[in-house]
Amino acid sequence: MRLYFYVYSYASGLLISKALQRKVKENPKFIEKVKNFLSMGISKSPEEMFRDMGVELNEDFWNRGLDEVEDLLKEAENLAKKLGKI
Asked: Based on the structure, what is the number of domains in the chain?
């Protein structure tokens, strides 16, 4: 599977970062894999980097990212209500 994110690079990047954030929240030790991932630069293909992390870019992975964004939106809404902004 080839990963071509050009057209959707910003949305893909956001969801990837949020999905990885969710994985770190679930397992704090996963941060070491994220640090290694970030240090790879362009030394490997995206497929290889994710495989090395044990991450499969499937529907579940993308949904983790969407769940994280949804949680952040709910948190922002709750804070706005507390501040009387909405």
From this structure: 1
